[in-house]
Amino acid sequence: DSVIVCTLTAIAIVVTGEHLNEGADGITLATNAFATVSYGFTFVLTACIVLFAFSTVLSYCYYGQVNFGYIFNDNKRAKQIYSVIYIIMIVVGASVSLDTVVRFSDATFFLVAIPNLLGIYLLAKPLRKEISSYREAAAAGEIEPVPEKDRVNLLDHGFPTKQTSKKD
User: Fold this and answer.
1) Is 89 exposed, middle or buried (0-12, 13-18, 19+ CB in 10 A)?
2) pLDDT range class, residue 160, cuts 50, 70, 90
3) Is 144 left (phi over 0), alpha (psi -120 to 50) or beta?
4) Contact yes or no for 35/41 (Cβ under 8 A)
5) Is the separation of the CB atoms in 143 and 137 below 8 Å?
């Protein structure tokens, strides 16, 4: 949904010519673009931004709590410590400049990407081996292959094949 909302907002900014306003930030551009239709739209946009920001804060808190719980074996104390740190960071984030918040969030996303990339690199060879042994066993009749309608042939063609419905 974020991709759709951001795309529609960008289209509104470009269509109204607000993209030519070089000194404005994203919120100002969007507000000015929506105000070209009706001044009342600025209030609707403000409500949407507040709801989007609030839902983002809640969802990031939840995802972080689940991950923190996983790391510490669902220890309730660890989850409470995470929640307190998260609330403190919300206050700190509201007190500093937007540029600082964006830089910090980019750095944390980068730090999360490192173990994921490392895992992909380390598991590439074992995964290739497992896929190869599955195909050999299926070709030899040792195991039942996945039915054609349930297959996604990413490795064979580079793109998914058309999926059939369960009714077919």
Assistant:
1) middle
2) very low
3) beta
4) yes
5) yes
Q: Give one DSSP letter per residue of 102-163, joined into a string.
A: HHHHHHHHHHHHHHHHHHHHHHHHHHHHHHHHHHHHHHTTSSPPPPGGG---HHHHSSPPPP
CB 78 within 8 A of CB 64: no
| 88-119 pLDDT tens trace | 999 999 999 989 988 998 998 899 899 999 99
How far apart are the C-alpha atoms of 115 and 113, rounded to whole Å? 6
Please give the helix or strand (H or E) that residue 84 lies within, else none: helix 76-95
Q: Which helix (H) or strand (E) holds 100?
A: helix 98-139
Torsion of CA 62, 66, 72, 74, to 10 degrees: 100
Q: Where is 33: in which H helix or E strand?
A: helix 26-35
Q: Where are the domains of the chain?
A: 96-142
Number of C-beta neighbours around residue 108 at 10 A: 11
* Over residues 60-86, mean pLDDT: 90
